[in-house]
Specification:
single chain, 214 residues, two-stranded parallel ribbon, globular
Length: 214
């Protein structure tokens, strides 16, 4: 009952309330992003959602458009400014995803939406993470966030979709607020300390630990 009917109503209601309450913060961050990083203020990227349907994810921009002499974008680590790192460490860059929740692309709690190019690397079991809407936060995020391995994250994702309850969702929400306030388990991607999924999968395949259908 909760998973099929109540969860979506709760997502819509809470995201709408959050957008109203946080609107001054959203406006201030938007202005700062425009001044410090330029336009566009909102970073858009396609991500797989419920049943692997592709949607456009919204975030505040955290990197510049600096390019080398050949006109190619510099590595993420060089384009990620101190201000951008602050947005990521405080999770302020994630606030526009409340619009995704309002639209029905995402849920407040669920597996985090990853890149579209990662889809071919999932096992059949891991693909079940798309049986539900992706979330702003999830069980993996309150149990290590991006300091745990990809396999560890997927285990938490699959564990969550098997045991979705009202109480469990609220526990995750409260733990998320605590983690954000304390800045726990944060690794800022784009600065060389997060291994991409495809690289980790390639490593596993080369070591013969698993066979991936690519």
């Amino acid at each position: 009952m909760y998973r099929k009917y109540i969860k979506r109503i709760l997502d819509f209601t809470l995201s709408l309330i959050a957008l109203i309450i946080l609107s001054p913060i959203l406006l201030i961050v938007a202005i700062l992003v425009r001044v410090k990083l330029g336009s566009p203020v909102i970073f858009k990227q396609e991500r797989p959602g419920l049943n692997e349907k592709i949607f456009t994810l919204y975030k505040f921009r955290t990197m510049t458009d600096e390019k080398d002499e050949q006109g190619n974008l510099l590595p993420d680590s060089q384009r990620l400014t101190k201000f951008g790192k602050m947005l990521r460490s405080t999770s302020l860059d994630e606030l526009p995803e409340l619009v995704n929740i309002l639209k029905g692309d995402m849920s407040i709690v669920g597996p985090r939406p990853l890149l579209v190019r990662y889809l071919p690397y999932y096992t059949e079991e891991e693909r079940h993470r798309h049986d539900v809407r992706p979330g702003l936060t999830g069980l993996a995020q309150v149990n290590g966030r991006n300091t745990i391995s990809w396999d560890g994250r997927f285990e938490y994702d699959l564990q969550y979709i098997k045991t979705i309850t009202f109480i469990e969702d609220w526990k995750i929400i409260l733990k998320t607020v605590k983690s954000v306030l304390k800045k726990e388990n944060i690794v800022i991607s784009g600065v060389g300390n997060e291994t991409s999924l495809d690289k980790e999968r390639e490593k596993l395949k080369s070591e013969g630990e698993k066979i991936w259908k690519i």
